[in-house]
Write a structure and sequence with these properties.
- The structure holds two protein chains of two kinds.
- By secondary structure, chain A is of the alpha+beta class.
- Chain A starts with 13 loop residues before the first helix and ends in a 17-residue tail after the last strand.
- In chain A, helix 1 packs antiparallel against helix 4 and helix 3 runs antiparallel to helix 4.
- By secondary structure, chain B is an alpha/beta fold.
- Chain B has a single domain, classed as Rossmann fold, CATH 3.40.50.
- In chain B, strands 2-1-3-4-5-6 form a six-stranded parallel beta sheet, sandwiched between helices.
- In chain B, helix 1 packs across helix 5 and helix 2 runs parallel beside helix 3.
- The chains are: A alpha+beta, B alpha/beta.
- At the A-B interface, helix 4 of A face helix 1 of B.
């Protein structure tokens, strides 16, 4: 069979695709979990850092408060002594309480910091001493010793105390500054880490999404390709069936011709020789006469058989006179052979169709009538040929017991191809025709149609009815 | 006494025709040929009144030979023998100039009748051919080529 090559079959790698999909999902889940956990940890640390930063700010604030109080305090006393004006002493008590307050808070806040606590411990007595000396001063200078020399001493000790306090507080602040810097750095690096985690999660998510998308596209393409392949297979199966039927018909035509032309020829020769024999032999006995006549009858019957067989294989009428003549001849023969009641109705079918169309319809007629004869147990058959509006229609209807439902269903579901009616339906479809089968226990109707440009819209309606 | 030339690629067919004509001295078998080419040659040499010729032969078939012989010797009558009961073939045979169409299966019964009719300028068509087709062919041909002698359409007589 030339011109026929089956399409190549490449099985889809579905197993691989499925596991790749599973892997990406697992990976994505793990990544998300990791990102989530990391993110939570980092945020927690950031939160801690921030708390510590704020803490340091608070400590620094308190230190400043303490320092301010100490400076204010000594300033007031100095001014009061210098000007001998007690009004400068106003606010001294607040200074003290403020300083004490700050110290108390500082104690609390720096509870974990040993060095700060040590400094506070050194500061405490100085403040106590200062408080001792001028703590009682309110509105007047009576809290101070009367002599200027002693006053100077008090002032001196105040100033010393103040210097020491400020120095200690400066140290404290210095340390807090260092801590602050540390903690700010810490916070900043946590922040950066957070950004990094977010960014990489985002990138990972985008990558996974792209990967998944590509997977999906690939799978869709693969599925499309396999659908394509299936369609190709179905098409080539159909084409194959069509070709088989064509080849079958060509073969039949060839066999018919050879059978008829060679065997038929020899049989005709035998007949001639028989006649010569008859003439040459003395016809004196009844036996001889009988033998001759019987032999001639055998030869005649052989000739008839050869003719019938070859014409059933491929009716020459189909090529020469067309579908109408061939159908009529076949139906007449069928009526005789099957001993059934056959009606043959023809409607506007005097023209000729394309050769392929005629043979396609003729084979449908043959197949349909053969089925009726073999399987239907019908009493009557109607064959109708009609050509109208550019469509030629062949109808074969019987009142038999119908086609078994499983066979009918298989045909209706249109699994095209095969040798019988299904294959013929494909061949008709190639010629832009149709084949329909309706069947139930009351009978079967087979209808084949084919477009016919040569439908004559004549006024003549030839209706012939042939009975067995 | 009309002379007859027999043409067929099978010897047993030629022998058969000879044996059919033997008992009838009115027909003189003047020669035999195996194919269309030989037939043309022999027809020119022997000038038979009638040629009984097979259609399917090698080298040159009966229809082509008929055309050539009729052109060279328009008075020669031709009866074609064939296995095929074919309207197409009948038409082509008569278009080529033959006036007899006999099926080989029926040759022993019909050949003599065919020869008698055709030699008298009539047409003989095997009764196996459908009557309408036969009438149609004869009508078509004789309208173009009116016969010179008495015309008997369809079958040998009536």
């Amino acid at each position: 069979m030339t011109g026929f090559a089956p399409p190549k079959f490449e099985p889809r790698e579905s197993r691989g695709a499925a596991s790749a999909g599973a892997i990406t999902i697992i990976l994505a889940t793990l990544l998300f979990c990791a990102a989530g956990i990391t993110g939570w940890i980092v945020i927690h640390r950031m939160h801690d850092s921030l708390r510590w930063v704020l803490h340091t700010y608070e400590v620094r604030g308190q230190i400043r408060q303490a320092r301010m109080a100490a400076l204010d305090m000594s300033g007031r006393v100095s001014s009061a002594v210098a000007t001998n004006d007690p009004q400068y002493l106003e606010g001294l008590a607040q200074d003290f309480s403020s300083e004490m307050e700050a110290l108390a808070v500082l104690y609390r806040l720096t509870g974990d910091n040993a060095s700060q606590q040590a400094r506070l411990n050194r500061l405490q007595p100085i403040v106590a001493t200062a408080q001792g000396s001028v703590g009682a001063c309110r509105n007047d200078l009576a809290c101070l010793p009367p002599s200027p020399a002693s006053r100077k001493e008090v002032l001196q000790s105040l100033w010393d105390g103040r210097e020491q306090s400020v120095a200690i507080l400066d140290d404290m602040e210095h340390e807090e500054d260092g801590l602050l810097r540390l903690r700010l750095n810490g916070w900043s690096s946590h922040f950066q880490l957070m950004i990094l985690v977010l960014a990489s999660s985002f990138v990972a998510a985008v990558l996974l999404m792209i990967f998944n998308f590509r997977q999906l596209l690939g799978e869709a393409a693969g599925r499309y390709k396999s659908d394509q392949l299936i369609r190709e297979h179905v098409d080539s199966y159909r084409a194959l069936s069509g070709r088989i039927l064509e080849l079958q018909d060509a073969e039949r035509r060839r066999i018919a011709r050879e059978l008829h032309d060679s065997v038929g020829q020899y049989l005709a020769g035998v007949r001639l020789q028989l006649q010569q024999l008859e003439r040459l032999c003395p016809q004196n006995s009844q036996q001889t006469v009988t033998l001759f006549s019987e032999t001639r009858e055998l030869v005649d019957r052989s000739l008839t058989e050869v003719r019938t067989i070859s014409h059933l294989l491929h009716p020459p009428l189909l090529d020469e006179l067309g579908l109408y003549s061939a159908a009529r001849w076949y139906v007449e023969g069928f009526a005789k052979r099957s001993e059934m009641d056959v009606s043959f109705l023809v409607d506007d079918f005097t023209g000729r169709l394309h050769r392929d169309s005629e043979i396609a319809l003729f084979r449908v007629l043959q197949e349909a009538l053969t089925n009726v004869h073999r399987h239907s147990s019908a009493k009557t058959v109607l064959v109708k040929l009609r050509c109208k509006n550019g469509i030629a229609v062949l109808l074969v209807e019987d009142n038999g017991r119908g086609i078994p439902s499983h066979i009918l269903r298989r045909f209706q579901e249109g699994h095209g191809g095969g040798i019988g009616l299904a294959g013929m339906r494909e061949r008709l479809a190639d010629l832009r025709g149709t084949l329909q089968v309706h069947s139930d226990p009351r009978g079967t109707l087979i209808q084949a149609t084919i477009p016919a440009n040569a439908c004559l819209n004549g006024e003549v309606e030839a209706v012939e009815i042939l009975k067995a | 006494m009309p002379t007859v030339l027999v043409v067929d690629d099978h010897a047993f067919i030629r022998r058969g025709v000879r044996s059919i004509l033997e008992p009838f001295p009115e027909w003189e078998l003047c020669g035999e040929a195996e194919n269309g080419q030989e037939a043309i040659q022999k027809a020119s040499e022997l000038h038979p009144a009638i040629v009984v010729m097979d259609v399917s032969m090698p080298v040159l078939d009966g229809i082509a030979a008929t055309q050539v012989i009729k052109r060279a010797h328009p008075d020669t009558h031709i009866v074609l023998l064939t296995l095929h009961n074919s309207r197409e073939l009948l038409l082509r045979a008569f278009q080529a100039g033959a006036r007899g169409y006999v099926l080989k299966a029926d040759v022993d019964g019909e050949l003599l009748k065919a020869l008698r009719v055709v030699v008298g300028d009539g047409s003989y068509i095997s009764p196996r051919i459908d009557e309408n087709s036969a009438k149609e062919v004869v009508r078509e041909i004789t309208s173009k080529f009116p016969p010179k002698g008495p015309q008997e359409k369809g079958r040998e007589t009536a």
